[in-house]
């Protein structure tokens, strides 16, 4: 008997070992297929996500165009502003989905298509902003023309590009599905082949096991014992659940339809004692006695269809905030209707939430209202009290960077905090004091004031702010500039009032330290003029209204033509605008890069043309701004233009201002890298207007240059001012000692020329030789043989 039993056990072991082996083989196969299926499914999900983001790009870009059309048709400025806000929202959606596409692995060809779509969308965004500008200027005709002829075609191009990208994604998705289906089919076939021997083995083992268990009926007693143990275990679990309910932080109770308390934990009973409520009382009316502003009828009506939740506070302890949840218990096995009541104390969470709200609306350093909160209050002031006059004061510390750089950021924070305290002490409690930038503050003055009272208040503030200098012992004094705008006199929109106060602040800074300025009609006219100049500059760049004139440069020793300086000119229908007037505006409006590229390309083209004249021009000098040098593409642009017109680098002289070169003394800058690269190719670098910036001859040795151009202001006085003559002499001598060429600008008289020749100045230019000439006049005068 024992032998038969052992044989059966051995047979079972062998059978199960065989099954385990087969299962192990199957598991290995299944894991392999699982990896393939997972990979194929991830590919499909990735392509689906790509398709989703492209769809959303379709929608967002289309909606911007639709909103733009609505904006053109709308006559309501608030509606236009709302449409503009929605356009910005869709623009952010475009950014979100573009960022998502960047993070999802795209094929190289898809990246190319996506980048093309990005480029077109960026271009279209700029064109849409132009349409918006036309709408804001109430130029609907130009807005519609720009929309139809530029923006909508660009939008169609974007849609076609996105459609092309979507097509590639769909193709990849179909391939992923096909791959997924193939793997599933292979896996099913493999499951069939692996399952058969496992099932066969299981059938045999099951048959043998059943026969054996037939003789093991006596083991039923063991099963009954096991069931009894399970019952005891379940009873213990119920007891543990009961104990757990009693020790929860939440107050939990169960009541019936009448409000009688059926079940509650320790925390719930403590709350009843705290509120002096008897446990035998009905909970419905007791809730009104325990909590503030609670409507029992409303709760009971809500519970008929849904659960009820609300934030409540205790009557006897208003600072204690709780979440009250009441819900009907849906269990048809219960004899009647019951309701669960759960109270969660969120007092600490509420305190933390209030702290977060304070941080979100107040500056961390000064504790004042921050920019976001200030803008909201400014908007509310205008929306809620459109007829009430108020004043907006804009304050900026002068040279505050000095404090952080020399005294440290800790002292800088003390400055800002003290400034905030002074402002709060100076202004009334109903006024709003805010820090809206690094060293910029704004105040909404709601009290009615006459202009002399407003001036007195500004002077008091300036006087009080002198206390800031008590925070350090340095002789360096921190001053301020203040600008003031009045609502509604100086604007009826928040951004306009703030803009005018900011402009008045900058005007006060021009008048000196510790000054204030109230926005005036002349400032408004000047702002209008700046806006007009900006529009004209944009049109001039777009329509290429600029021209280039050329002033010859001569060797002073032999009076021989050695080059010409390219000078930009802007002729409008009404007047000729001097470069000194429009170049700073072009830099401010970020148009100087395009203007500079036009001047360089046009100058090189004209220079190449003059290589075929009877007298060839040896060199062309072209000015470059720091903005061009910082752009990063100036070097490649110059190389491309020179290659296009087959002009060698040693025929070109790049002129930069002294201030640009001086930046490189303190550390290697991007401008220096660009200029050094061009210089290594043979191009000459000259300092323009030397002496007007840092005015120190000791700096010359630090500059990696080929030529110094002495500023006209020194040449003007060289005949009669001995000091000016000494400075020019020193510059020439120092330049020669360093192996540099020296060119004098603004030579206007024979005597000036004679003095410069005596001082051995190398080169010169000025009205004595020639005014800047048009290309035709320059060629006729300087490059043509005269009989």
The side-by-side strand order for the widest beta sheet comes to 11-12-14-15-16-17-18-19
Helix proportion: 55-70%
Portion of residues in beta strands equals 5-15%
Tell me the total number of β-strands: 19
Uncertain segments of ≥5 residues (pLDDT<50)? 665-671
Mean pLDDT rating: 82
| Total DSSP helices | 25
Apparent shape = extended
Sheet having the most strands? 8 strands, mixed, barrel
Q: Give me the Rg, rounded.
A: 42 Å
Termini gap: 140 Å
Secondary-structure content class: alpha/beta
Structure summary:
By secondary structure, the chain is α/β, with parallel strands linked by helices. Helices cover 59% and strands 15% of the residues. An eight-stranded mixed beta barrel has the order 11-12-14-15-16-17-18-19, surrounded by five helices. Strands 2-1-5-4-3 form a five-stranded antiparallel sheet. A five-stranded mixed sheet has the order 7-8-6-9-10, sandwiched between helices.
């Amino acid at each position: 008997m024992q032998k038969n039993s052992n044989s059966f056990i051995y047979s079972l072991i062998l059978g199960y070992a065989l099954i385990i082996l087969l299962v192990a083989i199957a598991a290995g196969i299944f894991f392999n297929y699982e990896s393939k299926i997972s990979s194929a499914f991830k590919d499909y999900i990735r392509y689906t996500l790509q398709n989703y983001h492209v769809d959303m790009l379709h929608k967002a870009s289309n909606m911007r165009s639709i909103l733009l059309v609505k904006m053109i048709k709308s006559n309501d400025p608030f509606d236009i502003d709302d449409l503009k806000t929605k356009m910005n929202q869709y623009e952010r959606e475009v950014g979100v989905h573009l960022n998502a596409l960047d993070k999802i692995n795209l094929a190289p060809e898809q990246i190319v298509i996506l980048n093309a779509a990005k480029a077109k969308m960026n271009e279209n965004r700029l064109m849409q902003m132009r349409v918006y500008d036309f709408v804001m200027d109430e130029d609907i005709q130009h807005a519609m023309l720009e929309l139809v002829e530029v923006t909508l075609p660009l939008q169609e191009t974007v849609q076609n590009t996105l459609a092309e990208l979507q097509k590639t994604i769909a193709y990849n998705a179909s391939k992923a599905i096909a791959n997924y289906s193939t793997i599933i089919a292979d896996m099913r076939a493999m499951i069939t082949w692996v399952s058969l021997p496992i099932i066969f083995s299981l059938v045999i083992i099951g048959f043998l096991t059943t026969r054996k268990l037939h003789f093991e009926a006596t083991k039923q007693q063991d099963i009954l014992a096991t069931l009894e143990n399970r019952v005891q275990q379940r009873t213990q679990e119920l007891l543990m659940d009961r104990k757990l309910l009693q020790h929860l932080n939440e107050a939990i109770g169960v009541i019936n339809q009448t409000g009688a308390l059926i079940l509650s934990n320790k925390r719930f009973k403590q709350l009843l004692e705290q509120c002096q409520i008897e446990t035998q009382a009905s909970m419905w009316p007791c809730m009104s006695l325990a909590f503030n502003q609670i409507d029992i009828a409303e709760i009971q009506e809500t519970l008929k269809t849904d659960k009820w939740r609300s934030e409540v506070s205790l009557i006897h302890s208003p600072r204690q905030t709780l979440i009250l949840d009441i819900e009907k218990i849906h269990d048809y096995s219960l004899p009647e209707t019951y309701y669960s009541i759960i109270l969660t104390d969120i007092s600490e969470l509420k305190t933390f939430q209030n702290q977060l709200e304070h941080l979100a609306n107040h500056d961390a350093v000064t504790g004042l209202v921050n920019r976001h909160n200030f803008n909201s209050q400014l908007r509310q002031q205008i929306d809620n009290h459109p007829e009430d006059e108020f004043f907006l004061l804009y304050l900026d510390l002068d040279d505050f960077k000095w404090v952080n750089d020399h005294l440290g950021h800790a002292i800088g924070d003390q400055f800002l905090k003290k400034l905030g305290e002074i402002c709060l002490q100076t202004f009334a409690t109903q006024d709003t004091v805010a820090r809206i930038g690094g060293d910029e503050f704004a105040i909404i003055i709601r009290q009615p004031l006459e202009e002399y009272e407003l001036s007195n208040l500004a002077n008091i503030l300036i006087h009080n702010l002198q206390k800031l200098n008590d925070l350090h012992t340095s002789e360096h004094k921190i001053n301020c500039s203040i600008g003031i705008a009045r609502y509604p006199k100086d604007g009826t929109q928040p951004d306009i009032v703030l803009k005018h106060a900011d402009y008045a602040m900058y005007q006060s800074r021009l008048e000196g330290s510790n000054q204030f300025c109230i926005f005036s009609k002349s400032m408004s006219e000047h702002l209008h003029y700046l806006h007009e100049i900006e529009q004209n500059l944009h049109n001039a760049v777009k329509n290429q209204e600029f021209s280039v004139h050329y002033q010859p440069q001569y060797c002073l020793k032999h009076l021989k033509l050695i080059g010409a300086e390219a000078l930009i000119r802007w002729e409008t229908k009404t007047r000729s605008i001097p470069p000194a007037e429009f170049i700073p505006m072009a830099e401010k409006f970020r148009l100087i890069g395009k203007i500079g590229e036009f001047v360089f390309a046009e100058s090189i083209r004209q220079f190449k043309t003059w290589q075929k004249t009877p007298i060839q021009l040896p060199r062309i000098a072209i000015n470059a701004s720091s903005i061009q040098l910082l752009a990063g593409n100036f070097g490649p642009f110059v190389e491309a233009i020179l290659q296009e017109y087959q002009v060698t680098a040693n025929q070109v002289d790049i002129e930069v201002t002294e201030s640009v070169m001086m930046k490189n003394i303190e550390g290697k800058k991007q401008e220096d890298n660009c200029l050094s690269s061009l210089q290594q190719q043979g191009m000459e670098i000259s300092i323009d207007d030397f002496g007007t910036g840092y005015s120190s001859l000791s700096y010359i040795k630090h500059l990696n240059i080929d030529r110094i151009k002495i500023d006209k202001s020194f040449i003007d006085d060289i005949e009669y001012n001995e000091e000016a003559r000494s400075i020019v002499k020193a510059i020439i001598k120092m330049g020669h000692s360093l192996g540099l060429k020296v060119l004098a600008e603004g030579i206007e008289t024979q005597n000036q020329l004679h003095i410069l020749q005596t001082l051995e100045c190398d080169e010169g230019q000025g009205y004595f030789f020639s005014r800047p000439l048009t290309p035709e006049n320059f060629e006729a005068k300087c490059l043509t043989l005269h009989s």
